[in-house]
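Possible regression after last week's pipeline update?

I re-ran a chain I had predicted before the update to compare outputs. Posting the input and the new output here so someone can diff against the archived version. Not blocking, just want to make sure nothing changed silently.
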Amino acid sequence: MSATTSRRIRPLRPALPLGKARVINHGAVQIAAPAASAPVSPAVSAEVVPALPKARTPWIVLLACAIAALINIPAAWAVGPVNASAAITLLVAVGFIACIPLLLRRPTRDRRLRGATVLGSAGTLHSARSVAATRRARVLPISLGLFLVYAGGRLMMDPAIEGIQNVAVFTMFILGIAFAAQGVTLERAARALQALRWTGVIVATLYFVTLAIGTQLYTARALALSALILLAPAIAMPASGLIMRLSPFLITGAIVSSLSRTASVIAVTLFAFFVVRLRRGNRLLLAIITLSIALVGVWLLVTTYEPLRERFLEGDNAADFGGLTINTSGRSVLWEMTLDSAAQSPIIGNGAGSASALISAHFTNISHPHNEYLRLYHDYGVIGLALFVWGFAALLGRVGRRAAHSDNPIHWAALIAMVAVALAATTDNVIIYPFVMLPLGALVGLSLGLPGEVAVSTPNPKKRVPARV
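New output (post-update):
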């Protein structure tokens, strides 16, 4: 045996039962196979681990990064009756719809695992692309698909420009999950997290630079909501290098500097998820301690940082929590108005975009109800609200189970981002922003798209779980 060959062969790990698999070398899969006709001596049997091709960042993640980096800059340019941001959103949504046949096409077995290598017990080298026989679970909940169809139907019944844009964002989010789930490997998921984290660093840096020179590149609320999604991979992914280690604090600093109250509270609270970087053990206790420290930090910010104090404690003071009056910036009036209007058609709703039309008709500088659950109820009725909430909760449950089982950063990033959006939707217009929902859809799709044997075979070092093939 030549020296070159010996360097590429190493002793086998303990034998696996037939029908079992495990992940080796960042996604390569070793399969226990029946012995071939030509027996191989145990002394010669070896596990061959060739160099894997460099993974590429998924195209949909690159698109999400571009839209997240632009945020609302294109909104300043008019394209006919809409702004450039709405035009881009509509163009992407139409492109996704046109590519639906690619999602319906039956995947070939050689596309299940790319760049992986399999060695049977007889010493025969196979491509892992041909052995991923496990049927991949359905990525999209049926309720989300039904919601998209229902929202499109309500739009056709009552067409409106604002409704078109809203449905286009829903399309980007829901179909974006499906597209992001195609051909996912651990390497591609890691590249996606790196790309999104770098996008967050760039966006936060640009925001601080523009603040320093006295100009405005992004609007404060849009920046804060977009940065919440970009904060998720910065928290979930272990960092190497000074910039990456500081990235969660840099992004959070930009959110707090925007003076967005809801986003600031959520961002500081999300620091409790830092415990996912640690080995399993006392994570729950550490999370409780971290969350307590974060809440104390929020309180100190609100009571000592004058701009935030004015935003929280001065104004209409419409909300009262334990004797502390909170400024809602008129949201209580918007919510009451939206609920009263929704009562006119509580089952099927008043039509896509009708909540924005209602608010715009009564206020000159406000066009949203600042509560996405009320928006869904007003525009699509109980039917639409139930379908969306049920589907989102189903996604949250699936991602949460994967995060708890495999401990992979992509699952934690998707879970953190979904929690942030669910919380922000109570006071902001988060689910109609493409720079929020497309990156979110990409993270969720990458999480759910990992093949089952890979998703469950990458736990922490203390526990390796075999997977069935």
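Follow-up from reviewer: compared with the archived run. DSSP finds 18 helices and eleven strands in the chain. Marking as no regression found.
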